[in-house]
Design a protein that fits this description.
With about 400 residues, this protein is of the alpha+beta class. It folds into 2 domains: about 1-125, Sandwich (Immunoglobulin-like); about 135-385, Metallo-dependent phosphatases (Purple Acid Phosphatase, chain A, domain 2). The protein is about 15% helix and about 30% strand. It is built from 7 helices and 21 strands. The protein has helices spanning about 1-10, 145-155, 175-185, 215, 255-270, 275-280, 310-320; strands at about 40, 45-50, 55-65, 70, 80-85, 85-90, 100-110, 115, 120-125, 135-140, 160-165, 195-200, 225-230, 235-240, 285-290, 325-330, 335, 345-350, 360-365, 370-375, 380-385. The strands form 4 sheets. Strands 3, 4, 5, 7, 8 and 9 form a 6-stranded antiparallel sheet that branches. A 6-stranded mixed sheet has the order 12-11-10-19-20-21, with no helix packed on it. Strands 13-14-15-16-18-17 form a 6-stranded mixed sheet, with no helix packed on it. Strand 3 and strand 4 (about 70) form a beta hairpin. Helix 5 runs parallel beside helix 7 (about 310-320). It is globular and about 65 Å long. About 50% of the residues are buried. Mean pLDDT is about 90; it is low at about 1-30. It binds fe (ii) ion. Fe (ii) ion binds next to loops.
């Protein structure tokens, strides 16, 4: 932990005491910034950064691309990005497949004057025309700090990281738990080498303050479902919602998953499968937290082990598109289910919160194949699948 803290501090300018801030605690020494700048929602023409702050401040991103330093300092509403819990800065107009140097600058707007500059860091935009891509997936980390630190240590750099749901454990009983869980999980700087594509799990929308999560997490669409190309891979991120009916008493009237599932079915039909970038993709993958298939679909459990609620709405359009594999978590059991006549798409599941259950999934797609491996923290490959190009 201490080594990781030093590693991060070593890249920062100023006394940026970030890592190790426990949920709900005051940041040590009244520091203004409480997380690294988290690279989120990677696109071919941009990206978005979010970072945790402890009092009212403003901030921006400075980008260096060889021709000088550009400042991205607007929030879409005619203001410099401001906030007292999180700052968000969206970057547009960038070139695909390009590496940029950047730093985040934060200035206090009340109380003691402070200005914090992060160290200079790098990110790369997605490249839809690349001949290959590599991605990684985490599932069901549930805010287990040891697991998050090990995953961060073992998971390689990649074009993107899908954090595929159930990042939370304590169901957001207080909003102060959100930034430390999502923006510096386990005290890590987890997007330093792999920008985050967040996928909502059922736990990520739970609790009194689950509705605040979108304040902290950016997606390319501003919604919990979106699609993008990275090289030969077409990726669709879907939100399977809760794992019980919306009117289940434990939800206390807070949940409206069914309408969201229906909206995604329409979106898939109208926007995704008609988009040439998705029609032509050699490989087609869906990332969603709750699996769409399970090994035992007859047993009725107290919560959904697979989201039949989602599959009933999405199956036909996903088959029409030609999805090859659904990558999920939720069950905490490494599982692979091959395609068959009834379900012409495979299902891969991997990851769990405890160190012995934890896993990361590596995906590599190139001209020959898409290969997926579920890797345990021991280095063991626990499951693997491969797919030929769809076309
Ligand atoms: Fe879950």
């Amino acid at each position: 932990m201490e080594a990781k803290r030093r590693e991060f501090l070593g890249t920062a300018i100023g006394s940026l005491a970030v890592c190790g801030v426990a949920r709900g605690e005051e940041t040590p020494n009244g520091e203004l910034v409480a997380s690294p700048p988290v690279a989120m929602a990677p696109r071919s023409d941009g990206i978005e950064f979010g970072w945790s702050v402890t009092r009212l401040c403003r901030g921006w991103i400075e980008l260096e691309d060889g021709s000088g330093v550009r400042r991205f300092a607007r929030d879409g509403w005619g203001l410099v990005p401001q906030g007292d819990k999180v700052l968000r800065v969206r970057l547009d107009g960038l070139e695909p497949g390009t590496t940029y140097r950047y730093r985040a600058v934060t200035e206090s707007m009340e109380g003691e004057k402070q200005r914090i500059e992060s160290g200079w860091r790098e990110f790369q935009t997605l490249d839809p025309s690349a001949s290959s891509t590599r991605f990684v997936v985490w599932n069901d980390t549930h805010d287990f700090s040891d697991t998050l630190r090990e995953l961060d240590r073992k998971t390689p750099a990649a074009d993107f990281l899908v954090w595929n749901g159930d990042a939370d454990q304590n169901k957001w009983r207080e909003e102060a738990a959100i930034p430390s869980t999502l923006l510096s999980p386990g005290g890590t700087d987890f997007t330093a080498q792999r920008p985050l594509a967040f996928s909502w799990g059922n736990h990520d929308a739970r609790g009194t303050y689950g509705f605040r999560v979108p304040d902290y997490i950016a997606t390319p669409s501003g919604r919990p479902f979106y699609a993008f190309r990275s090289g030969p891979l077409a990726a669709v991120v879907l939100d399977t919602g809760e794992d019980k009916a919306d009117d289940h008493p434990s939800f206390k009237g807070r949940v409206a998953s069914e309408a969201l599932r229906r909206e995604q079915a329409e979106w898939l039909r109208k926007e995704v499968i008609k988009n040439p970038a998705f029609q032509d993709a050699p490989y087609r993958v869906v990332f969603c937290h709750i699996p769409l298939r399970w090994t035992d679909e007859e047993t009725v459990y107290s919560f959904d082990h697979f989201s039949k609620r989602s599959r009933d709405l999405w199956h036909d359009v996903l088959v029409e598109w030609g999805v090859q594999v659904i990558v999920s978590g939720h069950t905490h059991r490494i599982t692979k289910i091959d395609a068959n006549d009834e379900f012409p798409y495979a299902q891969l599941i991997g990851g769990g919160p405890q160190l012995d259950l934890a896993a990361w999934i590596e995906g590599v797609a190139d001209k020959k194949s898409l290969r997926l491996k579920v890797r345990k923290l021991t280095g063991e490959t626990a499951a693997e699948m491969a797919f030929a190009p769809a076309r």
